[in-house]
């Protein structure tokens, strides 16, 4: 039988930003699930429901508001008390889950009533969140210290008012509640030790285009089973443009967002420590590299040349012979020309010859460009963040799936695709990605 507590956790409105377009629908679903539990958890109410419902349902179904013409208002679900009842029921499961994690314990107050109190571990974690620690469960000494210090303010509230753990949760800022709920939901996934990482261009979306509703629906299904993340060479703004919306941050759709191969990393909506290409290579070498690229491009004869030939990113430079300002038609034209004349391949070989001692690697990706970055700063860079998750949340990802369309030698997905730590899946396009996901994880096809 579906566990309504866990289902309400997945649909809780606090898991998305307060201004998200998803919030009204999440609120309705959250209330419906709790309405169903209120009825089915009591024998007399369940008997009345069984006698009233017009359609026979299976034991494994969780009835929702209005299903089969049945009205939950029969049990007093008016607009005035519905939200309060849902919150009270969710508070019970919230405290239950925290007890399982050692973050709450039961004691008796002065009136002899049993209450669920936060443990010292909970206060360190909440303090760590409010103090800007990297994760929810902070296992390292520095993080624990930061959590303890930042948690003093909330500890004072606890000592003064004797609040339950759920009351403390309600007092947290909405962003901190969202991160905490996401952590608990992640712990309840059926496949906790598995994560799926995806290239963006050509894998989740057509090159430089936006993601389809069908892909988003499939990824939502997948995220209920295991963790998911993006791994792109572009910056975070481009991931937002292709995968998010004006009201939905891309970081709310994935557990991890790795932009610039992981040099910019977001975990559950919060930035992790990054790195800088210029700081690594130095300004003098950087300028020599860029000057060579611009001179090389000046001597190329191509069908079209537009603008932004060298784009600086935090962890690399992206070089485009035709220019990143090219239109979709011009990109397609260059891609066909490049396949015939190997423009990018020849460019990379010239750079290898000119800068043999710079410690650089090169990878061709997308339609019109290639990346230049320090050796080891390819897409495998993101794996260090995945491996660090064991110290942050206690989850050890033993199976790391990677899906990418440039998985051939020289492609910008090749290193992570062929890495011994990953299970690589070469895809042809977003449709192929969806096909493989359905087959591997037995996901539902929506009409």
UniProtKB/TrEMBL annotation:
Its keywords, alphabetically, are: Cytoplasm, Isomerase, Magnesium, Membrane, Metal-binding, Transmembrane, Transmembrane helix
Its Gene Ontology molecular function terms?
A: metal ion binding; phosphomannomutase activity
* InterPro entries for the chain: DnaJ_domain, HAD-like_sf, HAD-SF_hydro_IIB, HAD_sf, J_dom_sf, PMM, PMM_cap
Q: A Pfam family in this protein?
A: PMM
EC number(s) from the headed UniProt entry: 5.4.2.8
Q: Where are the transmembrane segments?
A: 122-149
Please state where this protein is localized. Cytoplasm
Q: Which cofactor does it need?
A: Mg(2+)
> What is the name listed in the Swiss-Prot or TrEMBL entry for this protein?
Phosphomannomutase
Could you provide one GO biological process annotation from this protein's UniProt record? Answer: protein N-linked glycosylation
Reactions accelerated catalytically: alpha-D-mannose 1-phosphate = D-mannose 6-phosphate
Tell me which residues bind alpha-D-mannose 1-phosphate.
Answer: 208, 313, 324, 331, 369, 371
Q: Does the keyword Transmembrane apply?
A: yes
Q: Has UniProt tagged this entry with the keyword Ribonucleoprotein?
A: no
Q: Where is the composition biased (Basic and acidic residues)?
A: 7-32, 42-56
Q: Where is this region: Disordered?
A: 1-65
Gene Ontology CC annotations of this record: cytosol
Subunit info here reads: Homodimer.
Q: What does this protein do?
A: Involved in the synthesis of the GDP-mannose and dolichol-phosphate-mannose required for a number of critical mannosyl transfer reactions.
Annotated binding of Mg(2+), by residue: 199, 201, 405, 417, 419, 422
Q: What sequence ranges are listed for the domain J? A: 1-53
Report the enzyme's class at the first EC level.
Answer: isomerase
């Amino acid at each position: 039988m579906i566990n309504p507590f866990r289902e309400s956790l997945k649909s809780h409105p606090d898991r998305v930003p307060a201004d998200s377009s998803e919030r009204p629908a999440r609120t309705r679903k959250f209330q419906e699930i709790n309405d169903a539990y209120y009825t089915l958890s009591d024998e007399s109410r369940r008997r009345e429901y069984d006698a009233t419902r017009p359609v026979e349902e299976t034991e494994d179904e969780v009835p929702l508001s209005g299903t089969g013409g049945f009205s939950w208002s029969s049990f007093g679900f008016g607009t005035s008390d519905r939200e309060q009842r849902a919150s009270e029921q969710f508070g019970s499961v919230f405290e239950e889950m925290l007890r399982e994690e050692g973050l709450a314990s039961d004691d008796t107050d002065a009136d002899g009533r049993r209450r669920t109190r936060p443990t010292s571990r909970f206060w360190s974690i909440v303090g760590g969140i409010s103090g800007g620690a990297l994760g929810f469960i902070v296992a390292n000494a520095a993080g624990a210290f930061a959590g303890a210090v930042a948690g003093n303010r909330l500890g004072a509230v606890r000592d003064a008012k004797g609040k339950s753990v759920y009351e403390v949760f309600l007092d947290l800022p909405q962003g901190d509640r969202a991160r905490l709920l996401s952590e608990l939901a992640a712990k309840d996934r059926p496949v906790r030790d598995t994560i799926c990482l995806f290239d963006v261009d050509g894998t989740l979306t057509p090159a430089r285009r936006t993601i389809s509703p069908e892909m988003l629906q499939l990824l939502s299904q997948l995220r209920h089973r295991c963790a998911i993340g993006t791994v792109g060479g572009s910056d975070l703004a481009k991931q937002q443009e292709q995968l998010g919306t004006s009201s939905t941050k891309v970081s709310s759709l994935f557990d991890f967002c790795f932009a610039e191969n992981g040099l910019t990393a977001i975990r559950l909506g919060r930035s992790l420590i990054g790195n800088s290409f210029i700081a690594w290579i130095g300004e003098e070498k950087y300028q020599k590299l860029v000057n060579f690229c611009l001179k090389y491009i000046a001597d190329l004869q191509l069908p079209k040349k537009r603008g932004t030939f060298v784009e600086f990113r935090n962890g690399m430079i992206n070089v485009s012979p035709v220019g990143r300002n090219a239109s979709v038609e011009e990109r397609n034209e260059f891609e066909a020309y490049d396949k015939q004349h190997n423009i990018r391949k020849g460019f990379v070989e010239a750079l290898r010859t000119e800068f043999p001692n710079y410690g650089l690697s090169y990878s061709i990706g997308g339609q019109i460009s290639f990346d230049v970055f320090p050796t080891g700063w390819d897409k495998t860079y993101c794996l260090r963040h995945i491996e660090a998750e064991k110290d942050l949340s206690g989850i050890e990802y033993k199976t790391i799936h990677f899906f990418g369309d440039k998985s051939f030698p020289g492609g910008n997905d090749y290193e992570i695709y062929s890495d011994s730590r990953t299970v690589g899946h070469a895809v042809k396009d977003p449709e192929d990605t969806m096909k493989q996901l359905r087959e591997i994880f037995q996901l539902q096809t929506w009409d």
